[in-house]
Design brief:
By secondary structure, the chain is mainly α. It contains four helices and no strands.
Length: about 80
Amino acid sequence: MSKQQLDECVRASLEAYLRDLDGLEPHGMHDMLIRAVEKPLLELVMVASDNNQSKAAQWLGLNRNTLRKKLLEHQLL
């Protein structure tokens, strides 16, 4: 999947989310989206890196301590 396809998928999902609100105002969309995307990203990268946090952090462009903090936040440790 290309970056453009991923962008289009996210856009379509957000449009559907707003449509489903049926006129209600959304709240906390940024946090909702980050949490929805971040957890599966971390899960997949950890599996692909054989749970090597240093390697996973490098792939993600994160500091290892930041990765560990995010893994704890998503209860992945």
